[in-house]
Amino acid sequence: MLETLHLTKQFKRLKAVDDVNLHLNKGEIVGLLGPNGAGKSTTISIISTLMPPTSGEVLLEGESVLQNPGKIRKIMGVVPQEIALYNDFSARENLHFFGRIYRMSGERLNRKIDEVLEIIGLFERPKDLVKTFSGGMKRRLNIGAALLHDPEFLIMDEPTVGIDPQSRNYILETVKRLNEEKRITVLYTSHYMEEVEFLCDRIYIMDQGRIIAHGTKEELKRLLSGETTILLKVGQVNERFMGALGNHPVVKNFTAEDNHFTILTEKEGNVFSHLFKLAEETDTDITSVEIKTPTLEDVFLHLTGKALRD
Amino acid sequence: MLGTFLKKQILLMVRNRQEIIVLLIMPFVLISILGFALGNLLNRGEIDLNAKLAVVHHGDEEEDLAKIKKETAEWQMPAEQQRAMEEALRAMAPLSLLKKEVFPPLESEGLLKVEYISGDEAEKRKKDFAAILEIPEHFTYDLLHYFLFEEGEKPKLSLTVREGNEISSQMIEDILLQVEKQYAIFRAIGKTGGEGAPLQLTDAPMEGSFETVSKSEPIDAFTYYTAGMGVMFALYIASNMASYALREKRSNVFHRIMLADVKRGAYLFGIFASGAMLAFIQIMILFGLSFFVYKVKWPDLASFFLVSAFLSLAVGSISVLLTSVNYKLNSENASNLFSSIIVSIFAFLGGSYFPVSQISETLQNLGSYTPNGAAFSGYLKILQGYGISEISPSLLALGIFSAIIFCIGIFLFPGRRNEA
Question: Residue B341: which of B235, B196, B219 has the closest Cα?
């Protein structure tokens, strides 16, 4: 349905997007996973025709989107990372305005507004001003404004940033439902790997403007078949322990958060004995240790040597 | 599409009380103050053009404002209403009102020279001043408290007049009397929710008149300042439009509009049309109020509508230009500079504060090229009974101005390629 070919965007000295190739099939949910500053938002700005690339091409059903942006705009809904709404308008007034600029009117528009309010769970508060809404409600309305014209293709740029877990679950369930019931194709960007794992059929992992891996969840996790992820908790964080961990030949990568360590090691029988020996030599108390099922976070760590939220 | 943009813009403005105050109430207040004060003054004919007034403030207005805000906060109004109340209180602070709104036009005209000094200095230099106005400690608090809560005694200012300067001091007394009347209006607006209150002044006497142009009927002060303030405050619509547009960009609403396949030109034309329509509505409301309250009548309605429409087009064009510059710089600096400095300069040159015939010919010519100056000149000619042929130079100036500014605005608006 949609593909990008060697997409590149250069801002003065910074290459925000570097030779990005990705494709979306009809009815898929595709995740674009990467840390802040990876180039996700710039990539979707180009795909959604808001920004021209420095080089490369975006094709919709084989036709250039860059030469004919009107075609994709008609069938695409975009949920920006920012709350792109009028705070002094009610939910209904916002939807009415955005429906009107999509040239909808009369009974059709009113029916569609009711339907969208129902989907986003704001049917009971259509007349309340947006400025009185919670963060989660604003996010839901932000999504609603992109659904008014019945898009076939939805681009969602980190739509759950800064909201409570309950609202986040509601949004994720809504996206899943839209995909299943209306067969809407979704390009979903996030730096929360659990969201991408929950929603997406295929995933592109981005870092520093480049796609560094892609595939289904299982394919990506298979990248870790030669490695083991160990979660280690220590009594007191010790600089000597951290130094020794970094230099140990069995340890491929590790991240530390307070006294919790996530350690990526080679798959071999005596990893635990290496770790306990290291702890003993550096006077570090290990309070718990467990082997973890690999996640996309671990894949990212494996590929880049850093955590997704770094 | 234009209707959608216009409806959106009207709704945004109506929901912002501070803007309603600036765009509608403030010009009307100034028409009242300047009309009464300068009307009386000019009727006397012989005045000391260098009247010096010392203002001695014994208190701290910010402290008083903080105290009254604290008291109104106890009313536990919704946050929005509380904010509006705080803005209204700041607008009503007497010393700021005198300093920023009442005295500057009189000083510009050379009728008054105001110095803000300490009590000790006033005592030492009392011979230098025609009058000394003393604002007692806690005056701001007491005055606002009296009007808001209707409790206690109305606080008093002290005006000491030097012998032989009665005419100048009469002018100052007139000004203060009119300021006080405006507080009564503010209070009435507060009570009635903003409707109908200004009509209380309908029976106020209209005194004084002064010649503004060379021929025909003299124009009284209220008529003069209705036109003067009308053309001046219409310009604020443009800076408001540009500020709203920048907010649309920053919140990504603009991108949402572009994604609906609305062309940039159509968006800018929406800004132009909304700015022009809002300016026209504002002018009609303001002149309508002046008609009912001060009996300001237009001898030729068709010409009046024509000049108003051309002025509105100019405001629409300025809205486009300021929007483009705001977008280009990604800041509100352009619209802020326009509303805080350029409008005042335009108003000065255009004759909104006093007749342009009193300043140099060069400045007078310069003023006729400003949109407000051209419209003002057109209005004055209509008021003096001239026909449509005499106002055509003003219409031509406004038309050319609008076309040039609109084209520059379109040219400067960033394209897709230039957006970060």
Answer: B235
Q: What six digits make up the tokens of A288?
A: 């718990």
Structure tokens at B358: 């009193």
Determine contact, residues A300/A310, Cβ cutoff 8 Å: no
Same domain flag for A159 and A255? no
The Cα–Cα gap between A113 and A116 comes to 5
3-state helix, strand, coil in chain B (%, to 5): 70, 5, 20
Let me know if residue A187 belongs to a domain.
Answer: yes
> Is the whole-model pTM more than 0.80?
no
Cβ-based neighbours of B276, under 8 Å, separated by 6 or more? B312, B313, B315, B316, B319
Which residue in B16, B255, B260 is closest to A80 by CB distance?
Answer: B255
Strand partners, B187: none
Cβ within 8 Å, pair A100-B420: no
What is the token pair recorded at B335? 């619209």
| Residue B321: exposure state from Cβ atoms within 10 A (0-12, 13-18, ≥19) | buried
Q: Residues of chain B with pLDDT > 70: what percent?
A: 81
Q: Report how far residue A100's alpha carbon sits from residue B197's, in angstroms, rounded to the nearest whole number.
A: 38
How many CB pairs below 8 Å do chains A and B form together? Answer: 59
Look at strands A76-79 and A153-157 and give their pairing.
parallel
ipTM of the complex model: 0.77
Which of the listed residues A215, A241, A260 is the one where a domain comes to its end?
A215
Test mutation, B10, B256, B262, B416, chain A, max A CBs within 10 A: B256
Q: To the nearest whole angstrom, how far is the Cα of A33 from the nearest Cα of chain B?
A: 22
Domain that holds residue A283: 223-304
Strands (E), A35-171: 55-60, 63-64, 76-79, 153-157
| Helix or strand holding residue B43 (H, E) | helix B26-44
SS3 A62: coil
Backbone φ, ψ for residue A48 (5° rounding): -85, 10
For A12-60, the pLDDT digits (tens) are 888 899 999 999 999 999 999 888 888 888 999 999 998 899 999 999 9
Which CATH number goes with the domain that contains A185? 3.40.50.300
pLDDT digits (tens, 9 = 90+) for B363-411: 777 888 899 999 998 888 888 777 788 888 889 999 999 999 999 999 9
Tell me the chain B residues in contact with residue A48 when contact means C-beta distances shorter than 8 Å.
Answer: 259
Q: Find how far residue B420's CA is from the centre of its chain.
A: 37
Q: Are residues A43 and A113 in the same domain?
A: yes
